[in-house]
Q: What sequence folds into this?
């Protein structure tokens, strides 16, 4: 039955538009514990104090879901067909369309409902970058890909432009083999291309130096040391993914809700510099960019412009 249930879940995930689906046993992430502790001790979380909370929950899904047996990991493509004009301040591609948290969570809820309808009483919780869970570790454990040197998950046939999500359930399933092979080899393109030197050896990111951190997470002023090192990114950053050879396999997504508003693609630097709060609210009405607020986006643009 385990194999039959697992097959059904993967078929449903495909029907709902997920790129890939893998399943791992819900257990303590022993190998990740010292890595996470070391990362925090070195202060790589910067001002992201929430990363210091719920240390045990990050490592053990059974503390997130009662009687958890399985972690279902899923990926969802967001690579856009069209990209911003060249003369523009840049937005990370994942934020072109509607906020992925809501779009994907809805699909996860639908998947859980299908599981309950087909199998019976199954309890679980849906996670989309919204709880203390090490999603890349679980995706790797479920065989979805490997962690690249930029610390993002890479799939051979799809590259890395996809979201990760999890469904943790109290149902025993057939488990996939973890990805044990890293296909980055001696390539260091992402490390070499990072203008703020945030990508360190051993698949580690110094989050406190990352452009995404400066433009989204940091509430204070961006340190002046990073002047002229931001490469015109005003929300997030895709440099390490854009240079990754595996992303030559990226194909445009088929999700209508991720299609960008025309302004995002067409606005020039001057348009962004002159943007009003009213236009900001209209363009980013349901976007992840709202997280930085109008004042945050203005701060970022000012920093790039000065």
A:
């Amino acid at each position: 039955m385990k194999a039959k249930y697992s097959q059904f879940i993967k078929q449903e995930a495909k029907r709902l538009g997920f790129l890939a689906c893998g399943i791992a046993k819900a257990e303590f992430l022993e190998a990740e514990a010292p890595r996470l502790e070391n990362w925090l001790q070195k202060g790589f979380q910067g001002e992201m104090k929430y990363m210091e909370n719920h240390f045990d929950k990050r490592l053990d899904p059974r503390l997130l879901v009662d009687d958890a047996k399985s972690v279902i990991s899923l990926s969802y493509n967001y690579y856009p067909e069209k990209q911003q004009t060249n003369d523009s301040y840049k937005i990370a591609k994942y934020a072109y369309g509607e906020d992925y948290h809501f779009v994907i969570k809805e699909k996860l809820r639908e998947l859980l409902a299908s599981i309950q309808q087909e199998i019976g009483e199954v309890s679980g919780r849906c996670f989309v970058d919204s709880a203390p869970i090490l999603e890349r570790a679980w995706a790797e454990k479920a065989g979805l890909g490997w962690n690249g040197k930029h610390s993002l998950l890479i799939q051979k046939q799809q590259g890395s432009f996809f979201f990760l999500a999890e469904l943790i359930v109290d149902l025993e399933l057939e488990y996939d083999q973890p990805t044990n092979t890293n296909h980055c080899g001696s390539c260091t393109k992402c490390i070499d291309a990072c203008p703020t030197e945030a990508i360190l050896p051993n698949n580690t990111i110094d989050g406190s130096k990352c452009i995404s951190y400066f433009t989204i997470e940091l509430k204070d002023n961006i340190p002046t040391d990073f002047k002229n090192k931001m490469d015109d990114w005003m929300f997030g950053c895709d440099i390490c993914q854009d240079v990754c050879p595996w992303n030559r396999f990226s194909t445009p997504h088929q999700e209508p809700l991720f299609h960008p508003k025309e302004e995002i693609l067409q606005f020039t630097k001057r348009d962004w510099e002159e943007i009003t709060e009213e236009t900001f609210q209209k363009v980013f009405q349901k976007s992840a960019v709202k997280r930085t607020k109008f004042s945050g986006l203005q701060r970022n643009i000012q920093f790039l412009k000065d």
Summary: The mean pLDDT is 95. The beta strands are 20-25, 70-77, 90-91, 124-127, 146-147, 153-154, 162-169, 199-200, 204-205, 233-235.
